[in-house]
């Protein structure tokens, strides 16, 4: 369903829940959000007020004749979820190979699947399903990994624009270390294709309102020095271009990287030397970091996509998220389809909670447990920070884009009307906790991107 602009300012009033900081979850029991017709949030009102008084109060910014939606008490507004790492071409492999290690899984499942996207009809079929489904699951923004195929990558760009999702898209670059013919013939061919895809994104969405380009080295073992150097130069030529890359997923991955890229003391030194480590760099995994890696990430303001589900399934190791946060590193959540079997950031919050508890049990250090407020932050504002979009999405600030979910908890396991009815205001924190841990996509009634309804259970 292609989103259509409403052409009218709109006010949403009811419970509004979003992260202010990693430790503060703001709950407005009787909040109101004013959304301009172009999808920009014009105001956030935190007091109970009648619809007519809202129109009068904000008449000076164009809301005197705004339409108003009043949410029923079992519903609340929640920021759109942000997936910082998803492999779109691996979608058909979801739930397959869960008993594999990373190396076996790549060679048996990933490489053959990714190599098949020379078939553009397959790309159209799969990518349409990826985008529509992730929107239905609440992911309003996704950083996509793709394949070496220019045509297929551009099809993904077309899909996100048609369905109205916010995304980062670029062509995967790989010339060595792969199997099943999942590699490009030369560095020149790889760089040429990468630039074509960056140019296509800029042509289709010149202002970057929904989709933005990236360069995408598959990782240290797959891109020799001349390719890494060329990608770094490409980033320098295209202002605002992102970088999506894997780093320190396994110890063997690190060893292969340092063997191919001689003279570096750690994985991140290589990326940094080639100009690929910066504030728009999204580093997937980062499980086995050295102190110098952490220093490089902090100094360059790169971000990390934490993929708890896939790291568990492939037994890569446990990401020490608490240490990253304490170091001041930007961290968001990723689903890492298809090594992760569920392409839902809603589910990733639960996985991140479980992984942090296992780390606390293993180390005996309670500090590793991620608090509930932190889980919500990682799924929303944390992801926005990693993607360098914190001024635009991730929460409900004035001037941000209205990317939001309408969540209805009536059918969530363990929820009854005592949580929203009665003499008191109800227990809004309990509502959101029960949704995070017991709910599913059936609770997501509407999904908004840029102020437009693009998905949800209430959408035909």
From TrEMBL:
GO terms for biological process: guanine metabolic process. One of its GO terms (cellular component) is cytosol. Transmembrane segments: none annotated. One of its GO terms (molecular function) is guanine deaminase activity. Its cofactor is Zn(2+). Keywords: Hydrolase, Metal-binding, Zinc. It holds the Pfam family Amidohydro_1. It comes from the Eukaryota. InterPro entries: Amidohydro-rel, Metal-dep_hydrolase_composite, Metal_Hydrolase, Metallo-dep_hydrolases. The keyword Transmembrane does not apply. Signal peptide: none annotated. Residues 76-454 form the Amidohydrolase-related domain. This is Amidohydrolase-related domain-containing protein.
